[in-house]
Amino acid sequence: MQNHNFHIPVMGIAYTIDTPLRVAHLGIDSVISLLDDVLLEKLRKVFSANYNHTFEAIKANDTDSRAKRITSYLNLINKVSEDKFEQLKNASQAEFMKYIDLLPKQSPVFKEFTQGLSLNLNFESIRTRIKDKLTRGSIDVNIMTKIDKVHYNEEGQMPAEFNDAHAALRGFANSNLESSVVFSAGMNPRLYSYIENFRDFFPDKEMNLRKKITLKVSDFRSALIQGKFLAKKGIWVSEYRIESGLNCGGHAFATDGFLLGPVLAQFKEKRDELVQSVHAILSKALKSKSMPIPEMPLPLRVTAQGGVGTNEEHNFLIKQYGVDSVGWGTPFLLVPEAVCIDNDTVNKLAKAKSEDLFLSNVSPLGVPFNNLRSNTKDIDKRERINNKTPGSACPRKFVTLNKEFSEKGICTASRTFQKQKIEALDAMQLPEDEYKIEYQRIVDKSCICVGLGTTALIQYDIPHATEGVGVSVCPGPNMAFFNKTMSLQEMTDHIYGGKDVMDAANRPHMFLNELDIYINYLSTEIESHKTHASEKDKTYYQHFADNLQSGISYYRSLFPEIHASNPEKLKHAMNHLNKSELAINQIITNMRITSTPLTITE
Q1: Euclidean distance between the first and final Cα of the chain, in Å?
Q2: What confidence tens digit (pLDDT) does each residue in 112-160 have?
Q3: Residue 199 contacts by C-beta under 8 Å, 6 or more apart in sequence?
């Protein structure tokens, strides 16, 4: 059992790439991105030198180099963090207290420590009582399921197990970590089926799982479908990580208007149904494989993340919905002690206001991407556009997924793709206004698979002439309410109700923030398609609006509980909901969709 009830989710490619080295020995869970094996190999060389480990380079043309690089990096991170944890347990009082001081005051370990003080026990006696109850933070990994590029050799297309996501999974599976792989960006049936090749994902005779599966989901239906799919292969999902569709950092995968509060409520209501139904399928599958079958369902965690910003919100998610941990991502970008971030970027984030944070179209994946207006990668991109040489050199090629001009795929942010796309656009001879819109859509794409990793190259003084100096960063909208860099102690104090570090004078509750973001998203979608919206589009928009309305109805019954002791906050929240409902009604009316008028509750 972990001693903390928050975790640090994956952020970008590099921002949490070394976070376990910074916080795992202090008991805090975090997630490493496995996208960029080139970056992992460069950092493994640095860390091997820093921590006196031997380093033997794994070259790009070595057999199965991507998987081997990932395995080697994870093994090194695991070993170093394990050594740091063991050293801390026997370190000086000051070092040992760094662990204790970060704990929530209600944790059993902290209570036992304070009890020892009340009994006038000396420090060494207290340490002896509690040090075996300290836990190391989990070193989890993230794989974006859709970034699963096919590889080719001189004989043609290579087998699927050499695809990028498949190789990343193999790299994790072959490592000595005992932790979770977090699958994000939706379901990839072929990748999920590949899990069956690795024994560590199946229960042993003691019903332990050396390697676990965490699914990042934004609604219950998706969780149930994916959980059952994997159970049919004998694979148990150990955690469902519920994330707000839009009130988060990185790529924003909007739901069909399903808001976080109602989604969490559905998980709470149907958690037992999920466990029992998936357990039954799992047992049948394990029996067919002649593998150990658990008599009872294996442990299941439900966690939540996306937009949380206060201790009150943190505690409410735990108490109201029974979540096992709350993810704090974006605020940790202002904690250089915990994440890998260069000084220029962290200073820009500290100064960022709401207008500096926006949902952009820069991602080559074609998915909305949270962005910072002053990021240096986009500045570099604009300079190339102004110089009539749009597009990137594409050194990593992780998202060469577009096959419009090549059967092998090209990245839409690459110079090669944009040159051909602009030539095709020129040939269309569109009116000037239409041409400008289409041209901007082409050149807007940015090489984020490099940009999101450059911060690590800068921080560790690794040569990066190939990658350039541009840094991409992907904070969530919540960044607007944090305006200074913080120490790890300050951040955990904030999470657990100590010193408040937030600039929250006019900040609505996280659920209301998310509602506003969804309304703006719907309005933008309708506006961008208003001249050519089909009946199918209009039906979808109405469905989206109906789901938002359903969410508002749920919040009307919930906020009297949230703000039970603060009538003024309750009044503001209810007024906020009324205005939101009017806004939704107006958006749909403007779209000329025939619908039953929405009822406004006074």
Answers
A1: 46
A2: 999 999 999 999 999 999 999 999 999 999 999 999 999 999 999 999 9
A3: none
Whether residues 115 and 48 fall in one domain: yes
Q: In this structure, what is the dihedral angle of CA atoms 45, 488, 86, 107, given to the nearest 10 degrees?
A: -150
Q: Which domain, by its residues, includes 414?
A: 362-459
Contact (CB, 8 A) for 298 and 444: no
Name the residue type at position 262.
P
Mean residue pLDDT across the chain: 95
In a domain? residue 439? yes
Residue 46 placed within a domain:
yes
Give me 388's structure tokens. 């009539």
CA distance 316 to 322: 9
Please tell me whether residues 454 and 515 are part of one structural domain: no
489 within some domain: no
Q: Residue 240 domain-assigned?
A: no
Question: 112 and 20, same structural domain?
Answer: yes
Of 92, 124, 139, the residue that ends a domain is 139
CB atoms within 10 A of CB 132: 8
Closest CA to 11 of 184, 198, 241, 250: 250
DSSP run (H or E) holding 110: helix 108-118
Task: Give the residue among 315, 301, 341, 304 at the shortest CA–CA distance from 459.
Answer: 341
Give me the amino acid identity at 452: L
Distance CA 477, CA 6 (A): 19
Q: What is d(CA 576, CA 580) in angstroms, rounded to the nearest whole number? A: 6
DSSP sequence for 233-264:
TT--EEEEEEE-SSSSSSB----SS--HHHHH
Q: How far apart are CA 161 and CA 194, in angstroms?
A: 8
Single-letter amino acid, residue 497:
G
Question: Is residue 452 located within the same domain as residue 522?
Answer: no
d(CA 498, CA 57): 46
170-202 burial by CB neighbour count: b if 16+ within 10 A, else e?
Answer: bbbbbbebebbbbbbbebbeebbebbeebebbb
pLDDT digits (tens, 9 = 90+) for 258-316: 999 999 999 999 999 999 999 999 999 999 999 999 999 999 999 999 999 999 999 99
| Tokens of residue 433, six digits | 């206004």
CA distances to 173, 246, 302, 468, 473 from 514, rounded to whole Å, are 36, 7, 20, 35, 20
Q: What are the two backbone dihedrals, phi and then psi, of residue 345, each rounded to the nearest 5 degrees?
A: -70, -45
Are 513 and 424 contained in the same domain?
no
Three-class secondary structure of residue 331 per DSSP: helix
Counted domains in the chain? 3
Contact between residue 24 and residue 136 where contact means Cβ atoms under 8 Å apart: yes
- Other CB atoms within 10 Å distance of the CB of residue 381: 24
- 3-class DSSP string for 536-585: HHHHHHHHHHHHHHHHHHHHHHHHHHHCCCCHHHHHHHHHHHHHHHHHHH
φ, ψ of residue 217 to 5 degrees: the values are -135, 160
Torsion of CA 251, 175, 151, 422, to 10 degrees: 20
CA–CA gap between residue 358 and residue 371 (Å, rounded) = 5
Q: Return the amino acid letter for 375.
A: N
